[in-house]
Amino acid sequence: MTSTPDINSTAVAQDCLDQVRLTMDEEQMQKFMALLDAPPVDKPKLAKLMSTPSPWEQKTVQR
Asked: At 57, is the secondary structure helix, strand, or coil?
């Protein structure tokens, strides 16, 4: 007999895994918030990487 995990306990476990707790002092918190509030930095190499199709998305060459 194969046992299947209880769907409720699986959902609870996933909720716990999705939570992150950050512990920092006031100065660290201010620096962290400043980073979050700062405008995004342009990253051309990242933009190129994200716009390049992955190998499985690229069209196959027809012969």
From this structure: coil
Rg (CA), the chain: 22
**CA 21 → CA 16, 18, 24, 47, distances in Å?**
11, 10, 10, 30
What pTM was estimated for this model as a whole? 0.43
Domain boundaries, the chain: 9-51
Tokens linked to 3 = 């046992």
In angstroms, the CA 61 to CA 55 distance is 12
b/e sequence 28-51, b meaning 16+ C-beta within 10 Å: eeeeeeeeeeeeeeeeeeeeeeee
Mean pLDDT by 10 residues, the chain (63 residues): 63 79 93 95 94 82 57
